[in-house]
Design goal:
- The protein has a 6-stranded antiparallel β-sheet.
- The chain contains 20 helices and 6 strands.
- It is mainly alpha-helical.
- It has 3 domains: 212 residues, no CATH class; 172 residues, no CATH class; 85 residues, no CATH class.
- A hairpin with a 4-residue loop joins strand 4 and strand 5.
- The structure holds heme C (HEC) (2 copies).
Amino acid sequence: MRRSRALYLSLCLGVALSATASASQFGFESMRGLIESRGIKSVDELIAALPADLRSHYTLVFASRSLQGATPANPRVILFGSDAEFVLTFNGAPTERGSSAVETMEFDARNNNFQFREIQFPADKGGPVTISEANSARCVACHGQPARPVWDTPPFWPGVYGERYGAGLSAAEAQGMRAFLALQQRDARYRSLLGAAAFGQRETYVASARAVYNGVSTTSPNAQLSALLTRLNIRSILSEMASRPAFDAHRYVLLAAAEGSCGPLPEYYPASIRDQIADELRGFRRMNAGTDRLQAAAVAARLTGRNGRVQRGAAGLDDLRFVVERNLGLSTQQWTLALERNTYDASAPEGAPTLAQVLFERVGLTDEELRGLHAYRSFTSDDRYCEHLRRQSVRALEAWYSAHPLPAAPASVARLEPSPSRDPDAPSSQNLVASKPEFLDRCTSCHTGQVGPFIPFADPGALAQRLVQGNYPHGRLLDEILYRLAPEAGAQSMPRGITISAAQRRRLEDYFLDLGQGGATRSAL
Ligand code: HEC
Ligand code: HEC
């Protein structure tokens, strides 16, 4: 009874707001207007006032690597509406990190980019509500530049209810979900969510026999969000590519590389530079071998203890990335939706558009013959469609490269060369300042600014003393750091957003251990 009344009220509110505004029209400015016109002073009030579309499409994160803490009973909520062009997040318990803030992401459809903002609500209702600038340093530390959403790729979203695509809740998830649903109706924030009970039902994650029979496809909320974000991400990537001067001349080779079924890439270039391209392409592939394996290992680590097993096919993006980096001069480091920026995982749920599709649409706009041949493809590398691509590509690139001779491999490609490996078992040096391990500067950048809790990583003397003190969940600061460096830390592992190898981890561990010993001796003196 109470429930249906609450539902009825919130539906009315939603209808009142969304009658004039469709899902995609309720964006950041509408939210700001709502806060101002209604004098909203708390996260609770804001969530209650949002349109029903946002409050009925969401996912629940029970272990988050973001600025907002999460637990199974008090998950972080990601509201995404029916198109994910405006996304809003909040969490629950007042003791959780970031619980007085709401985070938003808006897709700017005019410029095809993403804008992240944070809204801080005052501790007491007298204070002001503050709204951060778009894509502040605090957000781009993890969302990158250009800023993009961070969302794991199917089939795993470790730490999000329904973490395994196509499977129901695990026993541990089901237990957490029961705890959440038990408080949801009474909680000042969570009660504004519509249809939360569905998160406890198997059909939300796995298509029932009846649904399959009726041809209804069930897409879990995590997969829905993946598909929507992938669509927007692809749109922004295409727009970035198209803004490069070399794009037009390379559109055919880009399409061939993206489709990957039209034979060797060098054949799309003028004969005079084919050997050089083939050489560089081999080098490029060698340098990139293994990057996706690292990310798969990171995902597996976050699933451990929950019977995780990750298998991922080869990303197959190498050729396309080669053309984009080498010929358009654009970095592809930030393409993935995964937090691990040095990986190139482009997995997306079925139904999400691919770069090949959007490139085809784009090239097809001015090439009717291409569209016709596509319909009759025989899917061999010498079918007429591929022949057409090759011919058009060579023609366009002959003109381009006669005006813009191909330079030697640029620094961006050279930079990807693995750094000369040091012997991980070599005894660590006594001179701690001189032996700063790789990635220490990354710890510094997040922990001496506005992202993570303050830890003096840039000051070895101060750090040495802090290491042997403190009362962290895993002991002293040193113990907490060692725990965070281990893969077992799962969602809590450090350095956040960066996948490191075992040898790199060992060097970091050795550095902190040595420094900690120094700190222990000093405080004993
Ligand atoms: C320490 C890393 C980190 C920082 C810093 C960070 N985020 Fe995120 N963000 C994440 C992760 C990880 C996710 C994926 C969902 C999750 O695990 O909670 C995410 C997801 C989001 C989402 C949901 C849409 C999406 O990208 O999947 C929004 C909105 C968001 N963040 C906003 C912000 C804003 C605004 C800031 C700056 C105030 C910010 N984030 C800073 C890690 C971070
Ligand atoms: C991209 C940003 C980012 C990077 C890089 C990063 N951290 Fe963190 N770190 C965070 C955030 C955010 C938190 C707080 C959330 C949490 O506890 O997981 C955190 C928490 C911690 C904590 C727990 C502190 C506390 O007060 O509970 C430790 C210890 C830590 N990080 C160590 C490191 C070390 C060591 C590195 C480098 C190897 C590193 N971090 C790199 C963002 C980062």
